[in-house]
Design goal:
By secondary structure, the protein is α+β, with helices and mostly antiparallel strands. The protein has one domain: 3-Layer(aba) Sandwich (Aminopeptidase), CATH 3.40.630. Helix content is 24%, strand content 30%. The chain contains four helices and seven strands. A seven-stranded mixed sheet has the order 1-2-3-4-5-7-6, with helices on both faces. Strand 4, helix 3 and strand 5 form a beta-alpha-beta unit. The longest helix has 15 residues. The protein is globular. The two termini are 19 Å apart. The N terminus is likely disordered. This is Ribosomal-protein-S18p-alanine acetyltransferase. It is an enzyme of class 2 (transferase). Belongs to the acetyltransferase family. RimI subfamily. InterPro entries: AcTrfase_RimI/Ard1, Acyl_CoA_acyltransferase, GNAT_dom, YpeA/RimI_acetyltransf.
Length: 176
């Protein structure tokens, strides 16, 4: 019997468009206690240093990822990151809860890092909630290291600032 962990998802990583925003904001609202608004995503879409990509589930699927009627591709995750003067900053990565632990976050993170490598960044930074142990483990799997703690960064919680030097990338066995 297959479990959701061993059935590979057929996804494409594509540039985010305004048409994706309702699905993106829905994932954002479910995922975070202080979510970005639709206007914030619109601002990022027009920001020249910002890069936004979505993971879209392909094929005949319903919202659970199971077979269904032919339907429009659905957004199941996204990444927002900046490239500024040789530095990268991961602003936001999220995956819809029903698609977590299936490699979507890893695909988005790896894509983001590779995009930044091609843009010749020399360092990548991110902030993550100190209690988000799954995300911290994922980032460490890719070679990110703790830099310092930003107190009350999220208002209700501290952020752990992490750093990756692209010259010391670590790509774990991802199984896809």
């Amino acid at each position: 019997m297959h479990t959701k962990e061993n059935i590979p998802l057929d996804i494409k990583l594509l540039p985010m468009t305004e048409d994706d925003l309702d699905m993106v904001v829905n994932i954002e609202n479910i995922s975070f206690t202080r979510p970005w608004s639709k206007d914030m995503f619109l601002g990022e879409l027009s920001n020249p240093v910002s890069n936004l990509f979505v993971a879209k589930l392909q094929g005949k699927t319903d919202k659970s990822g199971k077979g269904g009627e032919e339907r429009q591709e659905i957004v199941i995750g996204y990444a927002v990151f900046w490239v500024v003067v040789g530095e990268g900053h991961i602003m936001n990565i999220s995956v819809a809860p029903e698609f977590r632990r299936q490699g979507v976050g890893r695909r988005l993170l790896r894509f983001t890092i590779e995009f930044m490598e091609q843009a010749c960044v020399t360092v990548i930074f991110l902030e993550v909630r100190r209690t988000n142990h799954a995300a911290i483990k994922l980032y460490k799997d890719y070679g990110f290291e703790d830099v310092y703690v930003r107190k009350n960064y999220y208002g209700d919680e501290d952020a752990l600032v992490m750093r990756l030097d692209p010259g010391v990338l670590s790509y774990p066995d991802e199984g896809f």
